[in-house]
Amino acid sequence: MNAYPELQLCIGGAWKSAEGQPTLNPADESVLGTVPHATAGDLDAALDAAKAGFEIWRKTSPAKRAAIIVEAARLLRERVDEIAFAITLEQGKPLAQSKQEILRGCEIIEWDANEGRRLYGRIIPSEPGMRHSVLRQPIGVVAAFSPWNFPLSSPVRKVAGALSAGCSIVLKASEETPAGAVHLVRAFHDAGLPPGILNLVFGVPSEISGYLIPRPEVRLVTFTGSIPVGKQLAGLAAQHMKPAIMELGGHAPVIVCDDVDPAGAGTLSAVAKSRNAGQVCVSPTRFFVHEAIFEPFAAAFAKRAAAIKVGDGRDPSSDMGPLANHRRLEAMEAFVADAKQKGARVLAGGSRIGNRGYYFPLTVLAEVSDDARVMYEEPFGPLAVINPVRDIDEAIDKANALPYGLAGYAFTNSARNVDRLAEGVEVGNLSINHFVASSAETPFGGVKESGYGREGGTEGLECYSVVKNVSHKQLDFTS
Ligand code: NAD
Hints:
Aldehyde Dehydrogenase, Chain A, domain 1; 21% strand; single chain; globular; seven-stranded mixed β-sheet
């Protein structure tokens, strides 16, 4: 209990150790374990296993598939404390947020499992004697790539969607936060998933994706990560004519209208920004606040931000853990220096805490010039920008000015504003008067460079299926 798990590959249901790279604890930079790297032979074996596994799984009834998948969620719930501890060790977030991530993952698994029983086709009316049946069939072997910010719930999106639709999967999870995926795959096997249907590998990301995506066994690619890597993988998938689900970066705008309580909205916004230390693709980042309430909103935001306690995620009094890796720390320092140099006011935070562990406070920048890097590059960390706007039209124009289009948020009490926001903001997910960007039953994904395809909801499962039309005519040689 409460130990960091042994990190292994899982191929054809068999767990395997290998040499690889160290995994670090971002709270103190100590080594937690060694992530095994898969060889080309391991990848071949994983593809063979997934191909054979697909033949078993596609012929398993949807009800039986759902029962196994739901049992995996039950086991994850039972093991929540142990898994949360491992996630906090490797990724840094406070234990309470690690638990939330696991429980949210379980909701996704359960919803997808049951929705998998409702992947209906349809019958198209035709002339007498002819019937067109539209079938939805599982697409086949899926190659999935998940990132380090949500060690469990990000792979869950892919594994639950693929398995619930009847597909098999080779998952390459993050080498920096591998324990979440190890626990996930273990829970599915303990729940009775036949060997070969879910395989787990690690290695050098570009080598693994370069090896798996072109292989004929792979029928679909799903990736969550940065836009530059997404473009590379989507290009590789396109060369081999494979569909892809791309869940990429965001730079979420938040439009605050003049008809809301500025102190309430500012306080809520600071707490939302601190979640997972801002390392979330839907993290609220660019706040466009009506000039009439700009000052009280910014003051309340900064006050709440300064009160966010940063510390080791294992300490129950920590509100925000360290950043997950050194790259994010360097990025935060560079964004703040650049914005300050271009005239931004720092209302809270602004520089690294200590010199061991990757701690950076929730940082609030106000009146940031449009040419500051943080205004057009995704910070992916605890940085919020608050700028005043004249009216909702200017706010919507600014929200849409970037090539990103994942999540957006707005605060207003006016139905008229809601209509304009719903029509005008270019995002895949718009949340009004709250900060929850997605849930198990809603489709989640981006527009513009934030990607395509959906995870979650009915649309999410449909991405793992192909449509086949079967025309059946009554045999009659007399006419
Ligand atoms: P990065 O661009 O190097 O990597 C992003 C992710 O892609 C990582 O998980 C990495 O392991 C994986 N990856 C990199 N090259 C790959 C390849 N050729 N094939 C397969 N996988 C590959 O950046 P990073 O420093 O790890 O993360 C920072 C940036 O990544 C952030 O700015 C953010 O935009 C993005 N990111 C987004 C999400 C998300 O939820 N959409 C999650 C994590 C990171």
